[in-house]
């Protein structure tokens, strides 16, 4: 196979470019081991729609965070979860999972409110493929080609020793994750603590409260803006 690919590798032709891409795939397979699942629909379409020769990481997928934003991360057919998270952490300014306690989760293909923690040695493409296959089995006869796995990066285990070196991004994501747990009744708090946390999260979301000041008649003051902000927080 290596000799065949080497013979046909040619950056001047489309056929030769695909041969070079296949050479990369063989090298990565030797490095990380065989795949466990066949290529997914997403993987096949990505390969067909854009020549993978031009991309060192030919596939990409969004990773969602607890504050409602997401980060698109590139990967290849042999990228493991560990390698995937190394790229994600470099892009977002976060520490390694062993230091931060964060982990990558996937949703459940059945649609149930269940998340699965993904181990570092599993390949991202295998996760996507197995998720697609399970989704088809869970929903037979339905055309759900647009559905794909949803990946979420959030804290799994938190220890006091992890506070040392904690980044601002990690702190922010922990705030939103704790807030969601409180809203869902998974994090018990009393009334006073709930009010304090609400005020702090409102400050993060909206900014500092602007106190009203007097101005000449007819001019718009910040009081109306402050009142509107306060009303929004209370709602």
From TrEMBL:
The keyword DNA-binding does not apply. Keywords: Coiled coil, Repeat. It comes from the Eukaryota. SUPFAM superfamilies: Second domain of FERM, Ubiquitin-like. GO terms for cellular component: cytoplasm; cytoskeleton. This is Pleckstrin homology, MyTH4 and FERM domain containing H2. Residues 215-235 are annotated as: Disordered. CDD domains: FERM_B-lobe (cd14473), FERM_F1_PLEKHH2 (cd17179). Residues 59-235 form the FERM domain. InterPro entries: Band_41_domain, FERM/acyl-CoA-bd_prot_sf, FERM_2, FERM_central, FERM_domain, MyTH4_dom, MyTH4_dom_sf, Ubiquitin-like_domsf. One of its GO terms (biological process) is negative regulation of actin filament depolymerization. Residues 1-48 form the MyTH4 domain. Pfam families: MyTH4, RA_2. GO terms for molecular function: actin binding. Residues 216-235 have a biased composition (Polar residues).
């Amino acid at each position: 196979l290596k000799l065949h690919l080497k013979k046909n590798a040619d950056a001047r032709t489309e056929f030769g470019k695909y041969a070079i891409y296949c050479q990369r795939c063989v090298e990565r397979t030797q490095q990380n081991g065989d795949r466990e699942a066949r290529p997914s629909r997403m993987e096949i379409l990505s390969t067909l729609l854009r020549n993978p020769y031009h991309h060192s990481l030919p596939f990409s997928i969004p990773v969602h965070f607890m504050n409602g934003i997401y980060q698109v991360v590139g990967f290849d057919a042999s990228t493991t979860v560990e390698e995937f998270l190394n790229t994600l952490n470099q892009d977002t300014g976060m520490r390694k999972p062993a230091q931060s306690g964060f982990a990558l989760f996937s949703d459940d293909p059945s649609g149930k409110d269940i998340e699965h923690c993904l181990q570092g040695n599993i390949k991202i493409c295998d996760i996507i493929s197995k998720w697609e296959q399970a989704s088809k089995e869970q929903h037979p006869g339905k055309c759900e080609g647009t559905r794909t796995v949803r990946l979420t990066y959030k804290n799994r285990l938190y220890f006091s020793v992890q506070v040392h070196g904690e980044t601002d991004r990690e702190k922010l994501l922990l705030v939103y994750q704790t807030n969601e747990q409180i809203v869902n009744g998974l994090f018990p708090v009393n009334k006073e603590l709930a009010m304090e946390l609400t005020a702090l999260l409102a400050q993060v979301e909206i900014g500092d409260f602007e106190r009203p000041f007097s101005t000449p008649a007819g001019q718009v003051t910040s009081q109306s803006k402050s009142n509107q902000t306060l009303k929004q927080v209370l709602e």
